[in-house]
Write a structure and sequence with these properties.
Elements: H1 4-14, H2 18-37, H3 41-51, H4 55-61, H5 69-98, H6 118-121, H7 127-133, H8 137-149, H9 159-166, H10 170-214, H11 218-244, H12 251-258, H13 262-279
């Protein structure tokens, strides 16, 4: 069976077999952040969109020096993943800045006609730049993905202005957010279960920490110490599980309720982050 290195060398010689090669490489690239850093499916999708334009250049740059192509690929992926992780953090800070709405300056009512100039005044400093960035149908679609991604933390009173920017009726946006909330309900319940476990373990830790200093019997002190260590482990375990419960809607859920492929959501969010990062600098931005 032809290995990956042979396929790459064949492509370099003949420029043929690219589609098959891409099919072989796609799952390796897509799953690399999960294996390397434990990232979730959404982050893996964003990394794939980021790395995909580099794949053909990667194939051309490979030189057969005795090491398999897989080794070269992993080395490049690890380097690019570090770069992407830094940019991803910056991008997420940027888009969080971009979507803030200054409640104090909301002077427009829900009855205003779509497209009113007052919509721009409802945004905090930088809001005009956001409005200027959303020019095409694709931009509005990507903004809708973004709004739905952040829907858990959005103020319901701000959905009207956001719906206008995204080019959808406010009622439609509200219904989509409700649908995502229903999808999220089991995860919210699981989080509450872990929260109760954490609180119960914390109460036991505090009780044992209070009892231990006053205990003079060595045997009982040893027993209390063991119980205290177990309670602390239970508390840490519950906190770890809480941290792993994803409450933001997944890209797959957003794709499902909108009836679009998941890859469309992955790429739309990625390119919107890139646009926002060009305008909103989270390191220098100062909110009003």
């Amino acid at each position: 069976m032809e290995n990956l290195t042979e396929k790459v060398l064949h492509y370099q010689r003949t420029r043929g077999g690219l589609a098959e090669l891409m099919s072989d490489l796609a799952p390796r690239v897509y799953l690399f952040p999960q294996r390397k850093m434990g990232w979730d499916e959404d982050a893996c999708g964003e990394f794939y969109v980021f790395f995909h334009p580099r794949l053909v250049r990667l194939l051309d740059r490979f030189r057969d020096q005795g090491k398999p192509f897989e080794s070269y690929l992993c080395s490049v992926l690890a380097w690019q993943l570090r770069n992407f992780a830094r940019e991803r953090k910056r991008g997420e800070r940027s888009w969080n800045v971009a979507l803030r709405i200054e409640t104090e300056h909301e002077t427009a009512s829900a009855e205003q006609a779509p497209g009113d100039a007052d919509d721009e005044a409802m945004l905090e400093p930088g809001g005009r730049e956001l409005t200027a960035l959303i020019r095409t149908g694709s931009d509005r679609r990507n903004l809708l993905f973004f709004i739905l991604k952040c829907s858990r933390n959005l103020d319901p009173g701000k959905t009207t202005a956001l719906a206008r920017l995204a080019g959808v009726p406010p009622e439609r946006l509200a219904s989509l957010m409700v649908e995502l909330c229903e999808h999220r309900a089991p995860r919210e319940a699981r989080l509450e279960t872990f929260r109760r476990r954490r609180n119960g373990a914390f109460s036991q830790v505090r009780l044992l920490e209070t009892e231990l200093p006053g205990e003079t019997d060595e045997e009982k002190r040893a027993e209390l110490s063991v119980r205290l260590q177990k309670a602390r482990r239970r508390m840490r375990g519950a906190m770890d599980r809480m941290a792993r419960v994803g409450l933001a809607p997944t890209n797959k859920e957003i794709a499902r309720i909108l009836g679009v492929p998941k890859g469309t959501v992955d790429s739309g969010l990625y390119w919107l982050k890139k646009k926002l990062a060009e305008v909103y600098d989270p390191d220098t931005f100062r909110s009003a």
